[in-house]
Amino acid sequence: MAWLTENLFWFFFLGIVGYFIFRMVRYGGFKSAMFGAKIEKTLGEVEGQRQALLSSRLKVHLLEGGPSEKAVGIELVAKGVASYQMMPITLSAAEAKRLVSLLQSAIAS
Predict the structure, then answer these.
(1) FRET label pair with 17: which of 30, 33, 52, 71, CA 20 to 30 Å apart?
(2) DSSP track, the chain
(3) Domain residues of the chain, as ranges?
(4) Can you list the residues of the chain whose pLDDT is less than 70?
């Protein structure tokens, strides 16, 4: 019993690593695992305004789903001198349309 409690952290850690490897195999790669769906194709990207030693980029992906449920993946990438951060955002078709509407109203005003 003492052996189990001493190694509980490692069991937990290996469980999380195993789950993520399973998702990578299931969805076909690191990015797809982060989105929780296969990336059907990348539609394009937009470079953000550069700030001192920091650059940002927004990539738009079409994610695989059933015929009735299309999904959009937005990948926000921020790079610095010694850092790299990628944040995946998954939107349904309705949420993506709402985002487009908000962006259009921001541009209009």
Answers:
(1) 71
(2) -HHHHHTHHHHHHHHHHHHHHHHHHHHTSHHHHHHTS-EEEEEEEEEPPPBTTBEEEEEEEEEP--SS--EEEEEEEEE-SS-EEEEEEEEEHHHHHHHHHHHHHHHH-
(3) 2-108
(4) 1, 66-68
